[in-house]
Amino acid sequence: MTDAVENAVYDVVVIGAGPVGENVADRTRAAGLSTAVVETELVGGECSYWACMPSKALLRPVVARADARKVPGLSAAVQGPLDAAAVLAHRDDYASHWKDDGQVAWLEGIGADFYRGQGRLTGTKAVSVTGPDGSEHRLTARHAVAVCTGSRAVVPDLPGVADARPWTSREATSAKEVPGRLVIVGGGVVGVEMATVWQALGAHVTMLIRGKGLLPKMEPFAGELVAEALTEAGADIRTGVSATSVRRAGPDGPVTVELDNGERIETDEILFATGRAPRTDDLGLETVELKPGSWLEVDDSCRVEGSNWLYAVGDVNHRALLTHQGKYQARIAGAAIAARAQGTAPLSTERWGAHAATADHAAVPQVVFTDPEAASVGLTLAAAERAGHRVRAVDHDLAAVAGSGLYADGYRGHARMIVDLDREIVLGVTFVGPGIGELLHSATVAVAGEVPIDRLWHAVPAYPTISEVWLRLLEAYRG
């Protein structure tokens, strides 16, 4: 950590040292710009300690067991329960036991100066840092300040919620023991992944879904197949219901959840997986005429609209709340900051240019690591139609692909390709099924590269793999 300096000048000041801030710093340092990084919690951010890494460490044993149980000759060997203590210990290792020494060392190794404390804007290109000991540092940026502070879980303001001490995604991924009963409010990615984990580790999971089904932002069949598997595993999924109040009996007692239909459910823990809000409420945005607590609107180089020095990268700009997309934005923003600082002109900000985050509009990939996995990139059928495209949805049963039967007995899955009929390119792809997460990058290349259908026909999938679904989709499209 940087020694106390009351006033320091850098080319770039980065507020937030999660994967996004780390990548902005990496790109600006690689370009020769002096860079300071400010972080109030742990270097590595949400992804390293409470999201991507611990959640996937929890999910991997669950999904691996589910896959193994469907393989002849192996299924009998994996019929027992998961070793919950070993799974949680594996998770702790991947979360670095919530210590950031290694990440701090990496940050300092690239030549960035690190300040631990709360960073706040105090005016144009000016940042103050309040350290854990109350010390104050004043930093000035010659060229850019990048806000990379991410987002936080939203807990609805229900009667009794504060005293009930509900879980958010942080508690769900860092819990030290398995609850006997867990109520999950919300059916998005966090909700279904945590339902998959804790049901498999021994909790009885009840999901409360306000809408019609799970994973509402994906194709309907994705949520349907995931719900089917969760129900078979023992989860209780209730749709069209909302929690209206929660009450915990004593410091460690059970939680009573009251529903809008008058029913009451008793549980040991309750997880609210009901959305995210930007971490911008204590950043001094008012000093530069921006609204505290707001999402920050940016151009395709991630520069805040109306500013020539302030950047908002990752979740805070609300373009795509995914770690890999935030890191993509960080590479774009870091390159743009460096180019502007060095007077490079003109910047390559045209569509698909080096300084434009075009993929955030057209080709955002996401994998939901449930059993079965769900993965998508680009537009769904409904989104494509809303956008005014003339499209055709091409569907195929993944169980009818040779590679899927070899992967698992009783394989269940589905694939959909959305084709723009005017341009004959792929606008979106969705896969659901065991092991399909690794198919997604091929779909992302097809969507981002706007590869013509006629050319995709010559991209021959290896036999016998699940990737053969590409050939079947193209055959179905051509008729």
From TrEMBL:
The keyword Repeat does not apply. Pfam families: Pyr_redox_2, Pyr_redox_dim. Its cofactor is FAD. Gene3D superfamilies: 3.30.390.30, FAD/NAD(P)-binding domain (3.50.50.60). Residues 10-327 form the FAD/NAD(P)-binding domain. The keyword NAD applies. It comes from the Bacteria. Keywords: FAD, Flavoprotein, NAD. Residues 364-470 form the Pyridine nucleotide-disulphide oxidoreductase dimerisation domain. Belongs to the class-I pyridine nucleotide-disulfide oxidoreductase family. This is NAD(P)/FAD-dependent oxidoreductase. It comes from Streptomyces yanii.
